[in-house]
Design a protein that fits this description.
Elements lengths: L2 H10 L4 H18 L4 H9 L1 H12 L4 H10 L7 H16 L11 H8 L10 H12 L18 H15 L15 H24 L3 H15 L3
Helix pairs in contact: 2-4, 2-9, 2-11, 3-6, 4-5, 5-11, 9-10, 10-11
Length: 231
């Protein structure tokens, strides 16, 4: 199936496995970009692999000009030193999502929701964070601390992108939920509307406002794409 065919499927409302796989790829790239960056991300940026994957995925999903913009931004890293790029991206991630006292952009959807209500956000025990955790557990997804995964709250934007990738893979029948898990056909739409999209729209705006680092400006455009292609 060509990119034109995939766009036609999106327009018709008939979601085929190829579309679900393209959506899964987009959320995978977002998770890699919005969790604490690993050196492998810098290596993929400098080799051009990340740029090509992002451009092809967004083009396949019918994102048009946004795909070109993301590709142009990420192309700035091609041929650069991977170690220098890794430290540049990690430094910006720390500035934005960690901060000296508090993050400029909280990565936790529940904290942001509390802030909107004029409250102090609480990690793990906030109502939004607990709702996200219940949703994921019902679908058979939980942190595996024994495997070395961090114990960060699961409403972290990067973790939510990982979960959305999982839901896309289930819809594509590329993976099977764990025994006892319950994944409903409309779970992706429900999770997007109730937990991800409001935060992601705010986060992308903040990234554009606060960062001139091409990588995070590309993440902002890809967040917007993630919202748009799931409507």
């Amino acid at each position: 199936m060509t990119a034109t065919d995939v766009k036609a499927e999106i327009a018709s409302g008939d979601t085929v496995p190829e579309v679900w796989m393209a959506r899964a790829s987009l959320f995978e790239l977002l998770s890699l970009g919005l969790l604490k960056p690993e050196r492998i991300v810098a290596e993929a940026l400098c080799s051009g692999e990340f740029s090509r994957a992002a451009s092809e995925t967004m083009a396949a999903l019918g994102c048009g000009g946004d795909a070109a913009g993301v590709s142009d931004g990420l192309a700035a890293y091609e041929g650069k030193d991977a170690d220098a790029t890794y430290h540049e991206v990690l430094r910006e991630h720390t500035r934005l999502f960690v901060g000296a006292r508090e993050p400029l952009v909280t990565p936790f959807a529940g904290v942001r929701a509390a802030q909107e209500r004029g409250q102090r956000g609480l990690l793990f025990v906030g109502p939004e964070s607990m709702a996200v955790e219940r949703f994921m557990r019902r679908c058979g997804v939980a942190k595996n601390l024994a495997a070395g995964q961090s114990n960060d709250p699961v409403d972290h934007v990067g973790t939510m992108c990982e979960f959305l990738m999982f839901l896309c893979l289930v819809a594509a029948r590329a993976v099977e939920p764990a025994d006892g898990a319950v994944v409903e056909p409309d779970d992706l739409d429900a999770f997007m509307a109730d937990h991800f999209a409001p935060y992601a729209a705010w986060c992308s705006g903040r990234l554009r406002e606060l960062s001139d680092v091409p990588f995070y400006r590309a993440m902002a455009a890809m967040l917007d794409a993630g919202i748009a292609v799931s409507r």
